[in-house]
Amino acid sequence: MRVDVHAHLWSEAYLDLLSRSGNEKATAQGRLGAGATAAELDARFEQMATAGIDLQVLSTTPAPPHFEDERAAVEAARFVNDDYAELVWQHPDRFKAFASLPLPHTGAALTELTRALDELGFLGAAVTTSVLGRTLGDPAFLPVYEELDRRGSVLFVHPAGVGAESRLIGPNLTWQIGAPIEDTVAVLHLIVAGIPSRFPRMKIILPHLGGALPMLLPRIDRQNPWEAPETPEKPSLAARRIFYDTVGHNHVPALRVAAETLGADRLVLGTDFPYQKGDGFSEAVTYVERSGLPSDDIAAILDRTAVELLGLG
């Protein structure tokens, strides 16, 4: 089975709800062709068939139900999780889903996580690289990690689209370079906080080949002991406890560096639909096939590792 772990879908009703609750930026996602109308779904399924992708795991990030107002966050999280549950019920051979959580409200997040996993049959939870200015290493989120770890479930991470909270990045570079920087910062916050080793049964998936992590990991190993001596294990060891999707915008050298640094066995197929669609969507698969990696590694990346990771076999 060929599973795409990094795919988005937002109904117009959900985006309208986010906008009414104060997240007006989310409405931009409605122009990308990743809605829930029959026409949009037909077009999506056609692209999946062309690329040989059997199943997509849906996530709302980077338009999650994260609000300081707990009532707004809970309403939006329940709404979109119900949306996804209906889609999975209608198209069980095409879709699975990661739950959206009403963060930063930990108690409410645990309640919704339980509902999503036990009642809706979701595969885990999706969060952004930071949550309203809070890092993923924030102790407030530990109960969520504990529950995912107890269940052996998945934490899928996606850039928040806030330019890594840096004025230097600015609005014109938010996704060009801000997103992979957010990936890199988030994985380091997780590693320094000891999350991968403390919760070894929680299956963390980072997007975009881990951002700059494959290029920086040897430097991080050297610098970490004096800059962050509280880190419980060598960063390169912690990094190999994590999985990474293959969204590298079809750049074979980036994929090869990730495979050589992090391990091909830690890579899973992602497309980032709808940000890659048409030819770009198919190339998200074909660039792995033409990467020059060993054939068994290619087969594992495309067809085996995600199935085992998500318990779909």
TrEMBL record:
Keyword annotations from UniProtKB, A to Z: Lyase
Pfam families assigned to the protein according to its UniProt record, in alphabetical order: Amidohydro_2
GO molecular-function terms, A-Z: carboxy-lyase activity; hydrolase activity
GO CC annotation, single: cytoplasm
Domain Amidohydrolase-related: 3-312
GO biological process: secondary metabolic process
InterPro entries xrefs: ACMSD, Amidohydro-rel, Metal_Hydrolase
Recorded superkingdom: Bacteria
Protein name: Amidohydrolase family protein
